[in-house]
Amino acid sequence: MQDFLELALRILNGIITIGFFPFLFQIYRKTSRRFYLLWGVGFLLYGINIVIRATLPFFGLEETLNAQIFSFLFVLTGFILIITGIGELIDSARHFFIASMSMPLMLVILYFTTQQHDVGRSISLMPYVFIALSLLVIRSRYTNALDLLIVGWGILLFDNVGLAIGAINGMYVEVFAIFGKFVIVIGMTSPRFSFLVDDLRRFLIAGLPSVYNDSASNRMILIDSKCESRDNEIVWIRSKVKENSAKAYRTVLISTYDLIAPPDLRRGEIKDVDIFLVRMLTGGRGTLNVFEGHTMTINDDVNELDILFTEIINFSENRKIRCEIILYNLSALIHTHGWKRVYSFLLSKIQQIKGSEVYMYAFYYPNTHENIADISKFEMIFDNIMTIS
């Protein structure tokens, strides 16, 4: 009876491990993070190996060399993908892939040392040791929550050590394995985990993500404000900043002529880390090292604004992080610099913005412009016009 229960739990362990693949693949499709694809396929092959080993006795193939090699190929490829996935998190997939390729050599040694159980068992534990240690090293360098992954892989390592030395009953081995894998999946499906590639020692505006979000098709949006007062517009901006913060987006608010000052934002319980404020003032002096501080000042010059946009776009592209620019407001720029200069600036940025992960929201007030034909030109180059009130 106990043997039957152990076999049933082993098959269940394999099926559950295989079942992680479609779950992780859906997250990969939503986030486009290759880590989830690598670990999803890795768990798929890992689970197939478990099922094969569990069912071989039914076919009398447990002692055949071909069946053993076939099973080993699945688990070997699975671990290579899982280890490579760890490297993908910190932008070192190639190095981790090279390191994982030492496992085929280990398995060859394992095959020729099957009579030397201590050597064979030690080698079979190496993938678990390598994964657990890698996660510990990464955890010591980054502040993201890796605790659940470390605990999960630690359980699998403990489980396999207990199996190797005969200290854990086979039935409990499968129970611990199932529990450990669930801990791993819970940890790795946290949205903040997918942002581990960010170096959190640098300026981090948007914080750690708590929700996923699908990319929108509209990159440049005009906001036609019907608000009775500026306070209502500030409320909308605060809400947008909080929404972006939950998704780990950088929010850059460009305030022309100090129409929105830092105290206006703090009243909405917005923290400095949630937003990067650019104050565009006449005679403003400041550096254009974007994201090096929470507030910066630039001169009232469209050329400097052009440079600022380029820096934000380059940052977003290099770091693979979405940035959202809120321009408050476009009408003030047009009144000051003329529609032709501002229009030319925006035209030059359309291709860069739409080829990046940068989104732009620009407040404007059509009724303040004498020539409606001029303002209509701006409406045509933006993807959408939204109204707030």
Can you describe this structure?
Strand 2, helix 11 and strand 3 form a beta-alpha-beta unit. The protein has 15 helices and seven strands. It has a seven-stranded parallel β-sheet, sandwiched between helices. The chain folds into two domains: about 1-195; about 220-389, Rossmann fold (3-Layer(aba) Sandwich). The radius of gyration is 28 Å and the shape is elongated. The protein is an alpha/beta fold. Helix 12 (about 300-320) runs parallel beside helix 14 (about 340-355). The longest helix is centred in the N-terminal third of the chain and has 30 residues, at about 1-30. Residues about 195-210 have low confidence and may be disordered.
Condensed summary:
This protein is of the alpha/beta class. The protein has helices at residues 2-31, 34-55, 65-89, 93-100, 102-112, 117-124, 126-141, 147-164, 170-188, 230-246, 262-266, 302-319, 330-337, 339-354, 372-381, and strands at 220-225, 250-256, 276-281, 295-299, 323-328, 358-364, 384-388. The protein has a 7-stranded parallel sheet, with helices on both faces.
Uncertain segments are: 197-208
Number of helices: 15
Radius of gyration: 28 Å
The string of secondary-structure elements, in order, is HHHHHHHHHEHEHEEHEHHEHE
Give the integer mean of the pLDDT values: 79
What can be said about the biggest beta sheet? 7 strands, parallel
How many beta strands in the DSSP annotation? Answer: 7
Strand content: 5-15%
Q: Structural class of the secondary structure composition?
A: alpha/beta
Query: How far from one another are the termini?
Result: 70 Å
Strand order of the largest sheet: 4-3-2-5-6-1-7
Helix content: 55-70%
Counting structural domains, the number is 2
Apparent shape: elongated
